[in-house]
Amino acid sequence: MRTFDPVQLGSIELFCKAAELGSFTAAAEVLGLTPASVSRSISRLESRLGVRLFARTTRHIRLTSEGELYQQQCQQALEQIAEAERMITGTQKVPSGVLRLSVGTPYAHYRLLPLLPQFQATYPQVEVELSISNRVVDFVDEGFDLAIRLGIPQDSRLIAHTLEDASLGVFAAPSYLAARGTPKTLADLDGHDCIQFVLPSTGRAMPWIFRDAAGKDIDFNFRSHKRVHDDVLGCVNWSIAGGGLFQIYHFIAQAAVKRGELVEVLQGAGGRTRRFSILYPQNRHLSARVRAFVDFMVRAVRR
Questions:
Q1: Which CATH code for domain 92-303?
Q2: Where are the domains of the chain?
Q3: How open is the CA angle 198-148-236, to the nearest 5 degrees?
Q4: I need a surface site. Which of 6, 236, 249, 287 has the fewest CB within 10 A?
């Protein structure tokens, strides 16, 4: 018996839209994707089924006889799914049920967890299950409702809703600055211990980003003998312990600054940000609990 891969549902939706419009390009424009991603998705679907769904030329596509039969059956199935979701989301006036969320360590500890008590007080019938990890996960395949990620995803199955553009600063412990001096310019960094964070997704050190007096963006790439893999909070704590300079988000450093554990330097070269987004699968009717959480987070982070 052939098992159904839930990920195939997205490919089936792309196939039906391309069949309806008679064009990969037109389907891509409607769905906010690239024609190449639509073509690849349908090719994977054809490979899985072992049949050609479209006959292709350089300018046109048309359904094969197998494609016509598959399109009829799939369209009916998609309409039934959409109706079921409308019934569920329409009748569920009070958000409830289990909300499964994937989030990286820094954002979880310094943004999300402090806000969760307020969310659960507002929506007591929602059960929150968190996966706090910096590992690379396919949260759709692993059954999460939402994820919070740094940057804009390349995955065409996802919709990204901006939470915030988080500002960055360079920080060091007072003890380090007393011993090594305070850098005044970016050129001064060559004489300092700079702690690097290595991204688990690429295995490369994340560059430090600055903006000069003329407003020009600068990506500062360097090689350091102090590097941390997987957990950026290790860089923060190493810096607090006097290990060196580190660039991190203001929302993470602010508590340590207030306690006198960190001091910000090179503020004249600041101004750059990195974006955090809340992600969810495209082409789905969002449940009441998912909609409630997205709306809550956007309000809470931006106020």
A1: 3.40.190.290
A2: 8-86, 92-303
A3: 40
A4: 6
